[in-house]
Amino acid sequence: MNSKPLNTIFSLTVDTSHELQVSTEQIDNFDAIAISKNKWHVLHDEKSLEAELMDSNFNSRNYKVKVNNNTYNVQINNPLDVLIKELGFEVGANKKVNDIKAPMPGLILDINVKAGQTVKENDPLLILEAMKMENVIVSPREGIIKSISVEKGNAVDKNQLLIEFE
Fold this sequence. Notes:
4-stranded antiparallel sheet, single chain, 2 helices, 15 strands, CATH 2.40.50.100
């Protein structure tokens, strides 16, 4: 049985403002010739480019690349990195969560905050009873509570809006 590896998609962020997707198939078809350890001659869209790797951090997948005398900072994210980011589990990142939704169906046992209240990351917001267990829902970030969509004693469905941040 002859099987071809999956075409993996990587997300590249250039200078923190431009995002693009690159597949392993595109990488395999990339036309570059090494001139030295950190320099390449690249043909792209019938244009000749000179590329140089100025700095790299393999563990964080951050690279500084010089292309035709323009320097770019490039962050490469594999599919797992993208999933982790989408789930809000980025390490050391500013969290942009603006609302809290019920992670599972359950019953609101207690609400520890009020609209207009300032909270810090990990402050307890409310207690949700689900499957005979009390789950403390904590703040994912520092912020101000904009609104609370539930009351103590309410039954909630999975993904139901509980709390919004300003």
